[in-house]
Amino acid sequence: MKSINILLTQSFIQDDLILKDKNVIILDVLRATTTMTIALANGAKEIVPTESIATAVRVAKGSKNSMLCGERNGKVVDGFKLGNSPAEYTPEVIKDHSLIFSTTNGTLAIIKSKFAKNCVLASFLNISAVVDYVNSIDEDFTIICAGKLNEFCLEDAVCAGMLLSKLSEGRNLEMKDSEIAALNLCNDLAMLLNVPSEEKILRMFNMSEHGKYLTSIGFGTDLEIAAKIDSYPFIPLFRNGVVKFKEMFEGENTQKSKMKRVNIGPKKEEVKEK
Fold first, then answer.
1. CATH code of residue 102
2. What per-residue confidence (pLDDT) applies to 198?
3. In sequence order, which residues have a C-beta less than 8 Å from that of residue 200 and are 6 or more positions away?
4. What is the pLDDT of residues 172-197, one digit of tens each?
5. Which helix (DSSP H) or strand (DSSP E) does residue 143 occupy?
6. Parallel, antiparallel, or unpaired: how do β-strands 66-72 and 75-76 relate?
7. What is the value of pTM for the model shown?
8. Fewer CB atoms < 10 Å away: N or C end of the chain?
């Protein structure tokens, strides 16, 4: 691994082809990447990120057992089943459903990574698992902070800095201004707040502009959920237009290989009989 690049807002990506064949980490810790991880852990079949409400509605009409999910300005979209609060995504509600997702910031960042070689969704919930995954690939990565309305947001930058801190251990990575800023922001927060790690994250959420806004509209509990470091040690990947856990994609590939072998077998036997 030579470098970890950080984009402090997804608005820096003007052309999706910039990410073609690159390895990407998407961060929208308040709340899309947090909520999607929990949704898959609680039994969702898959998540289909969309760039607009209209696209989500169109995709849902053509999908069996689907559910419209997402938000605008932090609140559930009119006509959608669920919003973007991780607390809503319980097994009783979402198990075995395809979740058609549209959010203000997070799904835009994910869609822009459609040409990436690997695209992993990260948050504080799975940060150590993501570090292990990145280390196993051992290639350059780009961390994309979803940001807030095309602008910088504190919580994504701090998470990016924590990722960079963990990934740079024992390595001499090349860093530009964005990486240095994110890393220093994370380190300064750790020094400033003399409390346990999860409490640091929660206090940072409560200081952040978006954290304050979510609390003001009744989603303060979401901040507590999103602050629980390594509480969901899974790897959600965006691949072929859907988000699933890495193991789910691997299971599908194994099943396809088995089916291929089964289809080949009888043909060989028929040749012998002739």
1. 3.90.1560.10
2. 86
3. 189, 190, 193
4. 888 999 999 999 999 988 777 767 78
5. strand 141-145
6. antiparallel
7. 0.91
8. C
